[in-house]
Amino acid sequence: MNRIDQKFKELRHKRKKAFIAYLTAGDPDLMTTKELVHALEGQGVDIIELGVPFSDPLADGLTIQAASQRALKNNVTPRKILNLVKQIRETSCIPIALMTYYNPVFHFDEIRFVQMAAQSGVDGLIIPDLPPEEAIDLIRASKKHHMSNIFFLAPTSSLSRMKTIIDASSGFVYFVSVAGVTGERRTVAADVLKKVKQAKSLTTKPVCLGFGLSQPQQIKKAAQVADGVIVGSAIVNQIIKNANQEDLVSKVSRFVRTLTCELD
Amino acid sequence: MAIPDRKGHFAEFGGRYVPETLMFLLNDLEQQYKLLKNDPTFKQEFQSLLKDYAGRPTRLYYAQRLSQYLKTLKVYLKREDLLHTGAHKINNTLGQILIAKRMGKKRIIAETGAGQHGVATATASALFGLECEVYMGAEDVKRQALNVYRMQLLGAKVISVQSGSQTLKDAMNEAIRDWVTNVDNTFYMIGSVAGPHPYPLIVRDFQAVIGREAKKQFLALEQSLPDYLLACVGGGSNALGLFHAFFKDKTTKMIGVEAAGLGLSTHHHAAPLAVSEVGVLHGSKSHVMQTPSGQIRIAHSIAAGLDYPGVGPEHAYYQKIGRAEYVFVSDHEAIEGLKLLSETEGIIPAMETSHAIAYLSKLARTLKRKRTVIVCLSGRGDKDVDAIKELL
Fold it and tell me: Which of B184, B203, B222 is the last residue before a domain boundary?
C-alpha cells in the first residue's frame, strides 16, 4: 500500500473527501514549489499533483501552458523534479503524483523512470495522453514499484471503456469534469455528477473529479459525489498573480484554504 | 500481419496517444471508416469528386529537358500540382469531408502549415456547406499570406496561433485542444499521415490514389516499373501516397526527402528521420525531434509545409524495415531545386516539392547508367512566389 492508498483509507475512515492540489514544478522556481508543497500540506491539502512541464501540453488550457513554459525557461527537467521530490520526502509524507505527458517519460525510458520516481518518493503517475491500451509496460513496471497509475475517465467514455479504465487504474481514477482542456470554469454540469456516480457504482477505487474546479461551491458540489476534487489552474493563477512577491507562499496558501475548508 | 494492426500500430510506431475524451470519437471514426471504405455509394461519391471536381487522374509527365540536364535520370513528374487548389491535399479532404458528413458533423477544423491543407479543407467545407476553422501558426500566417486570404475567401476562419514556435506543431496543438472541447459537433480533418489511429491509415488510403495512378501510367509508357520514387516528407502524406501502391515492388526504390533547413548539425532543420529519435507527438509514436529531457524541438524549414518536428509513423516503419530510404536537402538546395524545375520545364514547384526536385541532382550524380524515376510533384509554387522574391 503506497501513500496514496493509505491516504484514501484514512479519509474513508474519517468520512472525508480528498483535496488534491496541482502545482507545476519549477513555476516560478523549484525552491518555491518545495515551499508550496509544505505550506499546502498544512492547509488541508491531502495529495499533491506535481506537474512535470512538457513543451506541447495538449490537454492543458492557457494557464497551465504558460506555467509549463515558465518552468521550462527555468531549465526544469524530469531529473531535477525527481530530486525535488527526494528533498520534499526528507520532511513530508504527503502523497505525490507526477502529472506529465508521455513523451518525457518515454524518452527517459519508462521502466527506468518508474523505478527512479519510486526511489525518489513519488507515489503515482498521471499521464493524460497515455490511455491504458498503450500503457502495458508502464503498468507492469509500476506494479513492481508500488506506483499508482491514475487513468482518466471523461464524460464521453462509454460503459465498457469505463470498466477498462477503472480496471487499469490504481490509487484513484481521475474523472474529467468537462470535454475540454484544463482551466477555471464557474459550474459543474449535473450530468457529469451523474456520470461520476455511475463510475463509482462500478468500483471501490476512489474516483476524483478535476478540470475546471475553482469555486468553493463547485468543490462542495463535486465532493458530494466524488471521493476527491482536483484543483489546478485556480492555484496556478494565484501563483502567477503573486509572482515576485515575498509572501507568495502565504498568499497562495490562504487562497487554497478557502477551497479546502469546503471539505472540512 | 496487417499494417497497421488493429490498434493502429506500424510495428512499434503509430498507436493512439490522446486524452480520454477523444477515445470514443476515434473508435467511432474507425468503425465508420471501416464501413464506408467498402460502401459502394461512398466509393462512387468519392471517385466522382476526385474526377469531376478535383481533376483526377493527374498526368504523369515526362520531363524531357530536366532529364537531359540530369543525364542519368529519366524523370517523370506526377502532376498533383495540377489538381484543384494546387496540391495533393485535396485528395484527402474530399475523402474526409464525406466521412464527416456521414457522421453528422457540422463543423470542420484543421491545422495547416503552408496553408495547402487549410485551403483544401476550406474548399471541401465550402463545397458541402460546412462551417470551417483553420489553425495556422502566426509565423506561417505571415509567410503564406496568399493562402490565408484564399481560405478567407472560401468562407473559412483562420485562427493565428501565437504559442510556441508559431508554426505547424503549435497549430496542431491548438486544433487538438479545440477538438477535445467541441468533440460533439466537430470533425478534425488531419492533413497528413500523422495523428492518432485511424488518421495515418485514412489519410494514406485517400492519398494512395497517387501511386496507383502513377504505377498504371508508368507501366503503359515504359512497360516496366520505375527504378526510383521520390517525394518530399514533412508529415509525409504525398510521399506515402506515391509509395504505398509500390510497397511490394521491391525493385522500385523509394526515397523520401526531408528538410535539412540550415543543416542537421544546427537543430534548425525538420528531419526527424535523419536524427532518428523515437517519441510521441500529436497522438502517435514515431520519430520526433527532441531535447535530451524529452521536450519537442522547434523545427525549421524554408518550406512551411515541412516545418514540423515529427513525421508519420508509417514512414518510421518503412525506414526501420529498410523499404524506403530517407535523405535530406537544405533550404539553400531547395531553392536551387525550385529554380531548376522552373527553368528547365516551365513549372514552378512549391517550396516543399522543391526539396524532392533538388535531390534529383544529387541522385543523378551517383548513377552510372540511366535510371527512371517518378517524382511526386505535390504542389505548385504560386503561394511561395512572394517569399522567394525576397530571398533571391
Answer: B203
B121 lies in some domain: yes
Chain A closest CA to B16's CA: distance in Å? 7
The residue of chain B nearest to residue A179, with distances taken between CA atoms, is B181
Say if residues B78 and B374 touch (Cβ distance below 8 Å): yes
Instruction: Quote the ipTM score.
Output: 0.95
Q: What is the pTM of this model?
A: 0.96
Q: Choose, from A60, A110, A123, A227, the residue flagged as catalytic.
A: A60
| Domain identity same for B104 and B250 | no
For the domain spanning A3-257, the CATH number is 3.20.20.70
Residue A131 with chain B: CB contacts under 8 Å: 16-18, 20, 23
pLDDT, tens digit (0-9, with 9 covering 90-100), for B325-346: 999 999 999 999 999 999 999 9
- Give the one of A158, A165, A179 whose C-beta lies nearest to B183's C-beta: A179
Q: Which residues of chain B lie closer than 8 angstroms to A130, CB-CB?
A: 17
Last residue of a domain, one of B151, B181, B203: B203
Tens-digit pLDDT profile for residues B180-238 = 999 999 999 999 999 999 999 999 999 999 999 999 999 999 999 999 999 999 999 99
**Domain carrying residue B384:** 56-86+208-391
Nearest CA in chain B to A72: B295
Tens of pLDDT, residue by residue over B69-88, are 999 999 999 999 999 999 99
Whether residues A179 and B184 touch (CB distance < 8 A) is answered with: yes
CB-CB under 8 Å, A102 with B19: no
Q: Is A49 a catalytic residue?
A: yes
Asked whether residue B150 falls in the same domain as residue B269, the answer is no
Residue B99, in any domain of the structure: yes
Residues of B in contact with A56 (CB under 8 A): 164, 169-170, 173, 281-282, 296
Which domain CATH number covers B161?
A: 3.40.50.1100
| Nearest residue in A to B12, CA atom | A134
pLDDT at res. B276: 81
Together in a domain, B291 and B263: yes
B3 occurs within a structural domain: no
Domain segments of chain A: what residues? 3-257
Q: Is residue B4 part of a domain?
A: no
